[in-house]
């Protein structure tokens, strides 16, 4: 397991390194001055520009420029926004919190809905409920998220008026931003109207979470159902029955853990899909997160912000994938054997 | 004492082309503590027989029998739940590729511990746990595994097939079954391991009066401890009897052919072909009527289109109109 962990971590580091090479080269491909693209300092601001050029080795070769770029990057100096002149890295942290809040809640909701429905469908194999569940899941899976989001807004926010159309919380509640996750921020704040604020935040939160959860939930449902059916066919399940173990015990100890294996394996992929959906969802719901921030920076040609957003998204996806793989290998040891056998 | 009594067991599978009879009026009697070897080629229905005895029955199979008795239970009269209780208590089975019968994501020790019947444990939680552990270790000792710690801490994929088979035997004997069905337990194993497994099974049978129904492909796999053998061809019982007697003086042409085909055949001269039956095993949809060996049998005559009844001669049972003994009219 240690060896496996080291291999995965090495892969993570190498990929992150390649990502910095890519980001660095972007500065030269973007229109305009590379130093301005990198730091967000315009040439008209002569003194700061000269200082930045010196600090980032722009008088030397491109290699030393790259080394300086990585140096600044690691220290958290990701430049400043071209439009707001605010530091990219300090802006990014609370936005990351907002995105994580949304994505984690959506993942949890997807698991809570998807896995049990998959199990239920497997139990009703080829019955009418199974067909219905699979049909619904296929249609839900095919609906593009931007359309679904607008439909649901139209229904719940405009027609039924159950929920606000967009935003994270009513600005009347003056909540200080620390982590970016609105629920955490409310809980650590000393606002006298904490409970009301929390309710309001949840009222803002549930619709985007549902929109985001639908796609991974349908995927989970299908994977769970199929793997469940496969595991039930396995010899060791039949042997367990022949040994006279109780059906509950077989289900809990042998069927479920094994059926969850492909589900766990797919979680990383599902998270990647969720991330691309979250960008759209955040824009539609005007949610202060990485996604809406990134899209805004693209509209505004704000290159330092774009780089920061790209890196944050890519690093997040990579990290989650590696963590999922590590968990998978830790929980399902025969995966490790497959890897060793390849050596 | 006969503990398993099967008379005229017939299994039909529903297919798109009508029912197919995969087991045709099969007979088997198994005495307590006896090792009985069932020999049949692949597709002869021997594994189906095992499943029918254990009650792993697909709802699309139609099973009829004059008798299917296990001790004093009429297995066909029991409902599924009752049958599982009887099977779980009295019978156990080991299989061809043992490692697929172990949960790949659970440690061997945990799987072994959970097979120990809870009813035999006493005391409170912690004592029961410790009890389970010692019993599991004792089981592994009984099947000849010395470093129990290491095996119990392993996952199934870390065991060799031989070890995995020993572990599944340990699981099978955890509740002291009266009948163990071993379905080609040593295929794909090295001869050395194979011998170990067979010795182990023979020892268990002798030691605690456990009957074993050994299912194999050919006569070479019959162990010396096996008291009786039965030969099955395409779902029909060909011949059954005491091992020595059947091997020495086969009454059925099929047994005779199997013996001369096998490497036991001492009469074959050097560099001659081993005699084989002409033709091939018929497919399930195209079974010949009467004696299914008919088209391939060197002694077949017109009468063979009628299925011969099971006859008995000096403890040997055979189903053939023209058995192989001196005054039977053969040349």
UniProtKB/TrEMBL annotation, chain A:
* Gene3D superfamilies registered for this protein in UniProt: MetI-like
- Which superkingdom? Bacteria
Residue ranges annotated for the ABC transmembrane type-1 domain, each copy included: 96-328
Question: Which SUPFAM superfamilies does the UniProt entry name for this protein?
Answer: MetI-like
Sorted UniProt keywords: Cell membrane, Membrane, Transmembrane, Transmembrane helix, Transport
Entry's Gene Ontology cellular component terms: plasma membrane
**Topological relation to the membrane, as annotated:** Multi-pass membrane protein
In Pfam terms, one family for this protein is BPD_transp_1
Cell wall biogenesis/degradation recorded as keyword: no
| Compartments (UniProt record) | Cell membrane
Membrane-spanning residues where?
A: 9-30, 102-122, 134-158, 205-223, 267-285, 305-327
Entries under CDD domains matching the protein: TM_PBP2
Which PANTHER family does the entry link to? Answer: DIPEPTIDE TRANSPORT SYSTEM PERMEASE PROTEIN DPPB-RELATED (PTHR43163)
Which family does this protein fall into? Belongs to the binding-protein-dependent transport system permease family. OppBC subfamily.
| Protein name listed in UniProt | ABC transporter permease
Query: Which organism is the protein's source?
Result: Pseudidiomarina halophila
From TrEMBL, chain B:
Q: Give a yes or no for keyword ATP-binding in this entry.
A: yes
InterPro entries, from UniProt?
A: AAA+_ATPase (IPR003593), ABC_Ni/Peptide_Import (IPR050388), ABC_transporter-like_ATP-bd (IPR003439), Oligopep_ABC_C (IPR013563), P-loop_NTPase (IPR027417)
Recorded GO molecular functions are:
ATP binding; ATP hydrolysis activity
Q: Which GO biological process categories is it annotated with? A: peptide transport
The answer to whether UniProt assigns keyword Magnesium to this entry is no
Indicate the principal place this protein occupies in or around the cell.
Answer: membrane
The ABC transporter domain covers 4-259
> Per its UniProt record, what SUPFAM superfamilies does this chain match?
P-loop containing nucleoside triphosphate hydrolases
Report the membrane topology from the UniProt record.
Answer: Peripheral membrane protein
Q: Which UniProt keywords apply?
A: ATP-binding, Cell inner membrane, Cell membrane, Membrane, Nucleotide-binding, Transport
Q: Which GO terms describe its cellular component?
A: plasma membrane
A UniProt-annotated Pfam family = ABC_tran
Record's subcellular location: Cell inner membrane
The family line of this record is: Belongs to the ABC transporter superfamily.
Q: Per its record, how is this protein called by name?
A: Peptide ABC transporter ATP-binding protein
